[in-house]
Specification:
The chain is an alpha/beta fold and 253 residues long. The chain has one domain: Aldolase class I (TIM Barrel, Alpha-Beta Barrel), CATH 3.20.20.70. 43% of the residues lie in helices and 15% in strands. An 8-stranded parallel β-barrel has the order 1-2-3-4-5-6-7-8, surrounded by 6 helices. It binds phosphoenolpyruvate. Phosphoenolpyruvate (PEP) binds next to strand 8.
Length: 253
């Protein structure tokens, strides 16, 4: 037993209107029963955040955004700040998802600033890291993870480290139906934890490190049963309340 509380997060990406968000949460919250042992986070698009916060108010579910800008305000057309998320009751933020790195040129330098601002403002950062297929094939997985962890957590104080959630998401497994084996996921996560130990050994033991990449009801138990895997960041399968519930159930210690 690791002693870390499992965490399962739903990354809805650019899916679900306000009405669809409310329908999902009405069904999901009605079914969660005795899932206190698992922390659940829903990450809807910006337009559905307020509705999700409202629906989750009397439930243990937390709501997180899928991105934010590091500045508090300013001439950044199309962006949203930490203060704006906090203002509507959002409690966390996904940072550095590979889709943002790939399609929106999210850099490690910007991510380091975003992680710092999220921690300073009291938003729980869910920082995504992971290698591409070419990098894995070239034997560069550990080098990529080391570089991302070092750069993205640059400046995070040892006492703040335990408040960061990390999601190991091999890019080749995201939305492809191709899942990392439990051994591959556990090996990468253990490596990430060993890197965190360089910042603070105690905090490294407390940090939740999730796996993300084609997690489904059918493969969740074998992944989440692993000692090093503290939960999941779920894309496609989180859009359906029954599938997402099954994955949350599989995370029970
Ligand atoms: C994700 O978007 O973070 C993700 C893991 O997606 P999927 O579960 O669809 O692979």
């Amino acid at each position: 037993m690791s002693g870390r509380t499992p965490l399962v997060a739903a990354n809805w990406k650019m899916h679900k209107t306000v009405g669809e968000t409310e329908d999902f949460l009405d069904r999901f919250i009605g079914e969660i029963g005795d899932l206190e042992a698992v922390e659940i986070v829903i990450c809807p698009p910006y337009t559905s955040l307020s509705a999700a916060v409202e629906r989750c108010r009397r439930s243990p579910i937390r709501v997180a955004a899928q991105n934010m800008h590091e500045a508090e305000q300013g001439a950044y057309t199309g962006e949203v700040s930490a203060g704006m998320l906090l203002d509507i009751g959002v409690q966390g933020v996904v940072l550095g998802h590979s889709e943002r790195r790939q399609y929106f040129n999210e850099t490690d330098e910007a991510l380091a600033r975003k992680v710092a601002v999220a921690l300073e403002r009291g938003l729980e950062p869910i920082l995504c890291v992971g290698e591409s297929e070419a990098e894995r094939d070239a034997g560069e997985t550990e080098a990529v993870l080391r570089r991302q962890i070092e750069a993205d957590l640059d400046g995070v104080a040892a006492e703040d480290l335990a408040r960061v959630v990390i999601a190991y998401e091999p890019i080749w497994a995201i939305g492809t139906g191709r899942t990392a084996t439990p051994e591959q996921a556990e090996e990468a996560i253990a490596f990430i934890r060993s890197q965190l130990a360089g910042i603070d050994a105690g905090a490294a033991e407390a940090v939740r490190i999730l796996y993300g990449g084609s997690v489904k009801p059918g493969n969740a138990a074998e992944l989440l049963g692993r000692e090093q895997i503290d939960g999941a960041l779920v894309g496609g399968a989180s859009l359906d309340p029954a599938d997402f519930l099954a994955i949350c159930e599989a995370a029970k210690p």
